[in-house]
Design goal:
Layout (H helix, E strand, L loop, with lengths): L1 E5 L4 E11 L2 E4 L4 H6 L4 H7 L9 E5 L6 E10 L8 H14 L5 E5 L5 H14 L18 E5 L5 H26 L7 H15 L2 E5 L1 H6 L3 H7 L7 E7 L7 E12 L19 H15 L5 E11 L11 E3 L5 E3 L7 H14 L4 E6 L3 H7 L3 E6 L2 H14 L2 E4 L17 E2 L7 H10 L8 E5 L5 E2 L10 E2 L4 H15 L1 H4 L6
Parallel strand pairs: 1-7, 2-5, 2-6, 6-7, 10-11, 10-14, 13-17, 14-18, 15-16
Antiparallel strand pairs: 2-3, 4-5, 8-9, 9-11, 12-13, 15-18, 19-20
Helix pairs in contact: 3-4, 4-5, 5-9, 6-9, 8-10, 9-14, 12-14
The protein binds ligand BES, manganese (II) ion (MN) and zinc ion.
The site of manganese (II) ion has 4 residues, from loops.
C-alpha cells in the first residue's frame, strides 16, 4: 500500500470520522467537504442508518453527487467528549477503516490529520490496519488490501501532515516487516534464512551487518547460542545490524530473542502449547524492524541490533536437562529445563552487546508464559535495575501506541537460581517466573550498564479476530516502542531537529 497527502477528497472511497455525541453521531473535523456534499444532512443520515459513532463501528454510504468519490466510509471515534480524539483513538480508527477498505483501489482518509502527531498516527494506523499476510495463500474470496491511501489535509497544514505521514508510514511498514517475520512458518524461517534476510534488507538501507555462523560462534565460545541450537538441523546465528549517524553521540543497543521455533527441546512442550511457537523470534523481528526504521528516518542516534537466532529442538544431539553450559563471558549455567532457552541465547547476546559499550541496552523477548499470565495479551512487561529507565520505556511505549507496564526485579528471588554444580541455573522459583527470568538476564549485564528487559510473550501474537489495527497473527509488538526510544534519544541530541514538523 502507498500513502500520500492530498487536499482534495478524490477517490473510490472517502473515509470520515464520526464522534459519539450525547445526542447522536457527529461528523469529526476533516469531514467538512463530505458533510457539505450531504447538504447538512450527514449526521441525520448516519443516525437513521444506526450509526452511533462508537469506536470500531463502520458504515458504508453511497457518496452524494458533488463528491468526487463513489463511496463514503464512516468510522467511529467513540466518545471524545467534544475534544479532539486521542492519538491512539485516531490510530485505531484509521486501522479499522483501512481493514474495511480491502478490495478498494484508492481511498482518501478525511480524518483529523493536520498536525505532525495526528498525521503520523493516521498513517501508522492505516498501514497496520491494511496489513494482510498473504504469502502462503491466494483464496478467491480474499480481497486485496487497499492499494493507495491518500491522507486529506489543508493547504496550510500540508507540510506538517506530510512530515507526519512520512514518519507514520515508515513506522507502519517496519512494524509490518516484523509481523511478516513472525508469521513466516519455522520450516521456512530458519536462523540462517533470517540472517540472510537481514543482510539483503540492510544492503538497501545503509545498515551494517555482521553475522556469526555456528563455526564462528564455536570459535568464540558462545555456549548459550550453541547449546540451544545443538539439537536442531538448522544451526544458530548471532547477527549484529547497525544504523550509525555521523553526528550522533549516543548508542542504543537492542537485543532480540530469535528462537525461530521453540519446541521446548528435551523438556518438550505438550500439544496445546507448541502450535504457534514460530512466534518465539518476535523479539528479534522487532529489533531488526526498529533498526531499519531508525535508518530510514535517518535518526540522529546510533542503534545496534543484536539478533540471537536459534531453533530449540529435541534430538539425539540436543541439550539435556542437567547439562552445564559455559556462556560467552565464562559463566557456567546448569540447564535444568531446556524450555527456558530464551534466557540462554539472550545471555550470550547481552554480554556481546555490552562489549561495544553502548549507552543503554534494551532486550526484547517472548520470554515467559508467566508474563502472559500476569499481563494478558495486550500488555508487555518492562523490567530494569534502573527504575527511571524502566519508567522511560513504559512512557515511550504509551506515546508510540503500545501498552506496557513496569514489573519489579525482587532481589529475594535471585537465590532460587542457585545451582549446586554451576554458577547459576536457568530456572528457579516458578511463582513470579517472569521476574526470575529477568533476574537471570540481569546476571549477564555488566554492573553500571543501563539495561531494560521487555517480555512480550503476551502481545507478540494475536490469536483472535482482528481489532483496531491489530490483525490475527504476528503483531510487531515492541517495534514502535523501540523506534520511539530511538526518536527520544535523537531528540535529546538535537532538540530543534526532532521537535517535529520538518520534512527531511
Ligand atoms: N517461548 C517460551 C515463552 C512463551 C510462552 C512465549 C507462551 C509465548 C507464549 C519460553 O521459551 C518458555 O518456554 N518459557 C518457559 C520457562 C520455564 C521453563 C521456566 C515458560 O514460561 O513456561
Ligand atoms: Mn521455551
Ligand atoms: Zn522460548
Amino acid at each position: 500500500m502507498t500513502t500520500s497527502v492530498t487536499t482534495s477528497p478524490h477517490a473510490d472511497c472517502v473515509v470520515i470520522g464520526v464522534r459519539q455525541g450525547p445526542e447522536g453521531p457527529v461528523p469529526a473535523p476533516g469531514a467538512d467537504a463530505v458533510a457539505e456534499a450531504f447538504g447538512g444532512g450527514l449526521a441525520a443520515t448516519l443516525r437513521l442508518l444506526g450509526m452511533t459513532g462508537a469506536a470500531g463501528e463502520t458504515l458504508r454510504l453511497p457518496a452524494p453527487a458533488g463528491l468526487a468519490a463513489d463511496v463514503v466510509l464512516a468510522v467511529g471515534l467513540g466518545d471524545t467528549a467534544g475534544d479532539a480524539p486521542a492519538v491512539e483513538t485516531l490510530r485505531r480508527a484509521a486501522g479499522v477503516a483501512a481493514r474495511a477498505l480491502a478490495g478498494t483501489r484508492r481511498a482518501v482518509l478525511a480524518l483529523p490529520a493536520g498536525t505532525v502527531e495526528t498525521a503520523q498516527a493516521v498513517a501508522t494506523g492505516a498501514l497496520l490496519g491494511a496489513y494482510a499476510f498473504t504469502a502462503y495463500r491466494a483464496l478467491p474470496g480474499d480481497k486485496a488490501p487497499v492499494a493507495e491511501l491518500a491522507i486529506l489535509t489543508t493547504e496550510r497544514a500540508r507540510a506538517d501532515t506530510a512530515a507526519g505521514v512520512h514518519r507514520g508510514t515508515v513506522i507502519g511498514q517496519e512494524t509490518n516487516r516484523a509481523r511478516d517475520l513472525v508469521n513466516m512458518p519455522a520450516n521456512d524461517l530458519t536462523p540462517a534464512v533470517f540472517a540472510d534476510l537481514v543482510a539483503e534488507t540492510a544492503a538497501g538501507h545503509g545498515l551494517d551487518v555482521e553475522s556469526l555462523d555456528d563455526g564462528a560462534l564455536a570459535a568464540r565460545s558462545f555456549g548459550g547460542l550453541l547449546g540451544v541450537g545443538q539439537g536442531s538441523a538448522a544451526p544458530p546465528r548471532l547477527v549484529r545490524v547497525s544504523h550509525t549517524h555521523a553526528a550522533a553521540r549516543t548508542t542504543l543497543a537492542f537485543v532480540g530473542k530469535g528462537i525461530t521455533y521453540d519446541s521446548g527441546g528435551i523438556s518438550l512442550k505438550p500439544v496445546g502449547s507448541n502450535e504457534i511457537m514460530k512466534r518465539d523470534m518476535a523479539g528479534a523481528a522487532a529489533v531488526f524492524a526498529a533498526v531499519t526504521a531508525a535508518a530510514r528516518l535517518d535518526l540522529r542516534v546510533n542503534v545496534t541490533g543484536w539478533l540471537a537466532l536459534a531453533e530449540n529442538m529435541p534430538s539425539g544431539s540436543a541439550l539435556r536437562p542437567g547439562d552445564v553450559l559455559r556462556m560467552y563471558n565464562g559463566t557456567t549455567v546448569e540447564v535444568r529445563n531446556t524450555d527456558a532457552e530464551g534466557r540462554l541465547v539472550l545471555a550470550d547476546a547481552l554480554v556481546r552487546a555490552a562489549e561495544d559499550a553502548p549507552d543503554v541496552i534494551v532486550d526484547v523477548a517472548t520470554l515467559t508464559a508467566a508474563m502472559k499470565m500476569a499481563l494478558g495479551h495486550r500488555v508487555f512487561g518492562v523490567m530494569s535495575g534502573d527504575g527511571s529507565l524502566r519508567d522511560r520505556v513504559v512512557d515511550a511505549a504509551a506515546r508510540s501506541g503500545e501498552q506496557a507496564w513496569p514489573m519489579p526485579l525482587p532481589a529475594e528471588l535471585r537465590a532460587s537460581l542457585d545451582s549446586p554444580v554451576a554458577d547459576i541455573a536457568n530456572v528457579g522459583e516458578r511463582m513470579g517466573g517472569a521476574l526470575v527470568a529477568g533476574l537471570f538476564l540481569k546476571e549477564f549485564v555488566p554492573d553500571g550498564m543501563p539495561w531494560a528487559h521487555l517480555d512480550i510473550a503476551g502481545p507478540a501474537y494475536h490469536e483472535g479476530p482482528p481489532h483496531g489495527y491489530t490483525p490475527t497473527g504476528g503483531t510487531g509488538a515492541a517495534t514502535r516502542t523501540l523506534v520511539q526510544l530511538a526518536e527520544d534519544s535523537a531528540a535529546e541530541e538535537d532538540p530543534a531537529g526532532a521537535a517535529g514538523g520538518r520534512v527531511r
